[in-house]
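Entries read sequence, tokenised fold; example below:

***
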Amino acid sequence: MADIQESKESLSENLQQVISLLEKHKLIEDLLHKQAMPKHDLVESLVHKQHISALQAKLDALHPADVADILEALPLEQRLDVWELVKVERDGDILLEVSDAVRQTLIADMNSDELLAAAEQLDTDELADLAPDLPKDVLQELLYSLDTQNRARLQSALSYSEDVVGGIMDFDIITIRDDITLEVALRYMRRLGSLPDHTDKLFVVDRDEILLGVLPLKRLVVNDLAANVADVMAADAVVFHPEDAADEVAKAFERYDLVTAPVVDSNNKLVGRVTVDAVMDYIRDEAESDKLSMVGLREEEDFFASIWKSVQNRWAWLAINLVTALVASRVIGIFEGSIEKIVALAALMPIVAGIGGNSGNQTTTMIVRGLALGQVASHNMQSLITKELGVSLLNGLIWGSVLAVIAYALYGNYQLGLVMMAAMTLNLLLAALMGVVIPLTMNKFGRDPAVGSSVLITAVTDSGGFLIFLGLATIFLI
């Protein structure tokens, strides 16, 4: 935990240092520009180079991921100024690290030659991540520049969506035959000079690249070097296919503590591998996407995007929210007469709606999580609904009683307190039912159950809470 905290503090310090250098550079240049002096242009040029060199040295010392975080935290003008100072050979790595929204602003500032130079520094699987954001003419030129094997690999990777194995696998693999000794395999690895990142096993194949098994490096180290690979390898390795869902792969990596796993086609021919870092990136992206979707945002938004672009990203669910708010207002309008007679109703009804919305969001979050983990299915639906209704009933009786006591203490009307308790209980039951039904319905129709769930559940509990509370008050108090 201390290391994580230190990392955050270091990143914050780096950002502040970069901002300070930018501001100092701009201030001194403005002062020099206004002053008249001998050899003004030469002095201005020297000062400019001095400050640019200091800023560039700072950026060069940072990891690409840290530079990416700094770029995301800068307004567009300053971001592009910093981007101009990044060394060409680091452009590709940094483009991979920044968010999609920020990447678009950086790519828009680069010409075709700069984009090609950045892309040429990347592996095929990394190119597949960057390719969707490249202009079509640059992508075509990039494909022509690759050799036949890498071009085929890139086209194959681009043919898969980001939510399947084919979209997250890489092609940097080490294969060996099963009829060689461990000593030969070890000599072969030494000749390579370096291993692909996250290599914990070698893939054993025959002459047709058909996967026979895997040889974990720990077995290579602890076994007799005279033994054959076939005698030591694991023939029951966890394997995936390019069409497998990425979320299922993520569960498998967690369940079996995998670092890498082979990817094979329908003929069991080895086509690539999946690594733990790719799975972690996928999980992180999905988690961020779910957080945005829960509040109705369509995509990740650049903090410093134009006003119009931000409006486009946010308007859809705000429009839906407006409609639901109008429905809630009409429900209140139906009971205007009751509210006029008992003014306390106006003060108490937001409590019923607010707690119902919170309870419904708790249920929805649990159901969305259960769907993601594969724990919610048709066979346990009845038990799940019964359990959630039971939780809501108990919560409604407990907290409804508390509100009943408070209402009686404030207004001296025990009937109002009983209405509050009944309305609270009924609205929590409604929230539980809708908290289960809404995400399950969306999932059944192939929609992401996280998208807008909180907006919908809040709309239902607001309108339902007002209707239940004011309806009961009208029946029993007016």
About this structure: Residues 2-34 form the longest helix (33 residues). Residues 307-477 form a domain with the Tetracycline Repressor; domain 2 fold (CATH 1.10.357.20).
